[in-house]
Amino acid sequence: MLIGKFELKRSFVTRSGLLSIVTFAVVWCVILLYPLRLAAELLVQEKGLMQGFSFFDVIGFGSLQQWLVPEFGLFWHFALVIFPLLSIMLAADQTCSDRDRGTLRFIVVRSSRDRVFFGRFAGIMVIQVLLIGAAALSTLALVLYRDAALFSSALPALLVVTVNVILAVLPFTAMMAALSAKVKSARQATVWAILIWTFLAAIIGGLAYYLPTLAFLTLLVPGYQLSNLAELSGWHTLQLAYVPLLQSLVLLAVGRWIMARQTL
């Protein structure tokens, strides 16, 4: 708990942490007030004016019409892109910088490597839960500003998207925990994450295309299910919840193995 609290303090009290939070808040406000709000208004108008045809069907986002509250359907699509990328950046420096400076060896004098590894992971996840919750609540405020009568319909959507986005970022945070336990800096962890993510997805995708029996290997790619999730709505989005949970368990096990054998 102390190690997790330290991560929270580093993100919400220090100057660099506050700068990151403010930057995220500004970027999210721009997304909320312009593309998300305007697209939601367009969806509402289409439901009232057009039958059997939708602009969103043409551009490949017809699943947005399945959401009772358009704002949360749009939030769902934006969040599946923004928060995994944000997770890679936020979670890159879990243990690597402390090990490079030599402070990690002093930390483990009063704690175990497991506690440091899982404490940092838990702290980063709490930070992301707070950011996801704040983004979802701001979307709820936008819904109520448009129509306060939608409150009862918006609450289930709020819960659905919050739980699912948290599940979506779990394997990315676990992947960064494993990489941070191996490399020397947050920059290296970020670069390796992008390279591994890109090449692993390409190699496994190619194998699955030519050898369909190897399609199960796509389970090894963090976030491979995101494109399928984007086609679902409501509580149906939990159909694939087992994928990020299994990926997170495997990546955390790998990260713990690396942490236990890594020279401090």
Automatic annotation (TrEMBL):
It comes from the Bacteria. Pfam families: ABC2_membrane_2 (PF12679). Keywords: Membrane, Transmembrane, Transmembrane helix. The chain crosses the membrane at residues 12-36, 74-96, 117-145, 157-179, 191-220, 240-259. The keyword Transmembrane helix applies. One of its GO terms (cellular component) is plasma membrane. The keyword Membrane applies. GO terms for molecular function: ABC-type transporter activity. This is ABC transporter.
